Each structure stands twice: as C-alpha cells, then as structure tokens.
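Lay summary. Proteins are chains of building blocks that fold into shapes, and those shapes determine what they do. In this project we predict the shape from the chain. Here is one chain we studied, written as its sequence of building blocks.
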Amino acid sequence: MNSKLENANSPVVRGTTVSPDWLSLNRKWKKVGLFTLFVGPTFLVFSLIVLVPFITGIYYAFTDWNGVNGNVTWVGLDNFKYLLTEDKQFQQSFLLTIKYTFVAIILTNLVGFGLALLVSQMLKTRNILRTMFFLPNLIGGLLLGFIWQFIFIKGFDSIGRLTGFAFFELPWLGDEQTAFWGIVIVSVWQGAGYIMLIYLAALQNVPLDIIEAAKIDGANRWEVLRHITLPMVAPAFTISLFLTISSSFKIFDVNLSLTNGGPFKSTEMLALNIYTEAFVNNRYGLGEAKALIFFLVVAAITVIQVMITKKREVEA
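And here is the predicted shape, written in a compact code that computers can read:
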C-alpha cells in the first residue's frame, strides 16, 4: 500500500516515474553547470595570467637562469643567501621601500581623510572639488612621472628664478633626499583622491542624529571627530590602510619615470630593483628570488595590518 502511494506521489516525466533523489541530483548538476559556465572562463584566465606565472616564478627563484635561453640550473637556496648577505643594493632598496611606504601611508591617508572631511561639508563647489581631487588618480603612473619630471626640472626652476623662494630652487631630482620626497609628493598627489572617496563614503554613513546629540551635549568639533566620527569610519581605515600599504610597496611606474632610481640608484625602490635584476641584468632566477621575498614580506605585513585594524573595529 505504501509503495503505491509513493509511486502515486512521484513526478512523472513522459510516462515514466522519476524519484525525488534523482531530481535533487539533477538540480545539483544544473547548479554546478551554471557555476562552471560563469566562473570557469574567469578562473581559466586568472590561472593563466596569475597562478601559472606565480608557481613557475617560485620554481625559477631556486635556479640560475638568464630568462632567455633554456639553460636552467638548480641552485637551491644560493640566490637567497646571496641576497641576504652580499647584494647591498637589494638591501638598500628594501630599506628605502620600507621608509617610503611608512611615509606614503601616513601622508596619503591624512590627505585623503582631510579632503573627505572638506568635500563632505555643505559647500556649493563640493562636487567640483571631488572631481578635481580624484582626477590625478585617472592619470597613468608613467605619464604622471614624466609630467612631474618636467614640473620639478623646468617649472620649479622658472618659479624659483621669478620669486627667489629657496623651495623651488632645490635640486629636486638631482639629490638623494629631495628626489625621495619628490616621489612621495607625486604618489600622495595621485593616490589621495582615491582614498578620499573611500573615506567620503564612510563619512556619509555616519548618522547625523548622533552628531547633533553630541553637539547638544556640549561636544566640540574635535571631540565629535575623535569619539564619534573616527570610530564609526574604522572599516574605511582598514580598507584604506590595506590599499595604501600594497600600492606603496609595489610602487614602480612613478619611480621609473620620475627618477629611474637615480641619482646613482639612491631612489631605486624594490619593484624597480627586481625589474632591473630580471630584465636588464638578465638574471631572472635572482630576480624571482627577490620577488618571492618581496611577496612574502608584503603578504605578512598586510595580513597583520588587517588583523590589527579589524580587532580595533570590534573594540570600537
């Protein structure tokens, strides 16, 4: 009797009885097929462009290869020993990149947050200001570097001769210290507008009634900013710090076009040093070893940063 009732309740397709288990399995396969259809091509492209070069790069980091011929010699850890003990330029570039990253992170986030506070005010020109502040981010790094190279060399020299201000008469790209700060200025000018948008989106989500209540209770602007605004935009700080850390460590195009590592490799950042080692000096294995160390350091720093800032979000 029960089997008859089950057969009566089972779906019928073209005169045949189909079990519910078979239908469930069929739905699962349809979902898998749709998932593969939409994700498969993207994953294939990602694998060819990112995963395969990354895995092969790890292999070449343990070899002695010039990147041209087929003579690949396994050398084990010799590349890493050489980098950590004998390659003084790599060590100098590494320390310089850390210094630059620290300065660029602070200045980019301070300027970006300050611009976000400015354009979040009820100003008639706030939309124009948002566009103006974001525009530098749309210019490519190589083009931006060449533009600012002209400004530092020709523009500042002309302004210095007209005004007599010592600031404009400095050898901006001809001295180690001023060339470093020239890279910082260009990078902050380019990146602050993008970071501004992230902070602006967070500021617009801060409830106005809480701010009004704090002002009624006697809080001034600094107290409102410190105790209400900053804790409520903490997720934006997490994102902005992550983006500025990764972009600052990986700076290449501005460094290449603005100073090309000069004068005398005093401003050669790590990404430019890796590029020079692999594609100019034709020591691809050594360049891959540098890139692997670079990847591990940046990954470790960004993971630690996200963990710390996420924890502070919860505490806030």
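What the prediction tells us: The CA atoms of residues 38 and 84 lie 45 Å apart.
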